[in-house]
Amino acid sequence: MIKTEKEGLLQLLKIATPFIIITTVYTIFVLALEEYFGDHIYKISGQIGSVFGLAVAFFLGFRMNSAYDRWWEARKIFGELTNNTRSFVVKIYAYYGNQQHFKETKQNNINLKAQKIIELSILYIRL
């Protein structure tokens, strides 16, 4: 179990170090064989950077687009929740403000109930 970020990095390095070393030795061996016996086809050209740069640009572009879409969807949902809560609070004011609904109940008790419901609605939005 990883408890901290530093421990997680150390565990990752313990696991990955043998594979990195084996891969590096194999790569050096293959390149040395090609350099000694081969026809020298492994020349580093300037196009590699532009190709990888273009691929990374497309990859990041698609990722940013999907992240923005998720953010926009969450913004719409939160806006709808806020608007529904505002409408609910307006209905509470209209219902508890009408004295005909509460002929036998004290006005002070009614205002406390209305205030409590409104506070809970606002708290629901803020959480």
Structural notes for this entry:
There is one protein chain. This protein is mainly alpha-helical. The protein is 82% helix and 0% strand. The chain has three helices and no strands. It has helices at 5-37, 47-97, 107-126. The model has no long low-confidence stretch (mean pLDDT 80).
Write the layout of secondary structure elements.
Elements: H1 5-37, H2 47-97, H3 107-126
Beta-strand segment tally:
0
Low-confidence stretches: none
- The SSE order reads HHH
- Kindly report the average pLDDT value: 80
User: How far is the N terminus from the C terminus?
Assistant: 31 Å
Q: Estimate the strand proportion.
A: under 5%
**Principal-axes shape call:** elongated
| Largest sheet, strands/sense/barrel | none
How would you describe the oligomerization state of the chains in this entry?
single chain
Rg over CA atoms, rounded to whole Å, is 33 Å
Structural key phrases:
single chain, 127 residues, mainly alpha, 0% strand, elongated
Give a short synopsis of this structure.
With 127 residues, the chain is mainly alpha-helical. 82% of the residues lie in helices and 0% in strands. The relative contact order is 0.05.
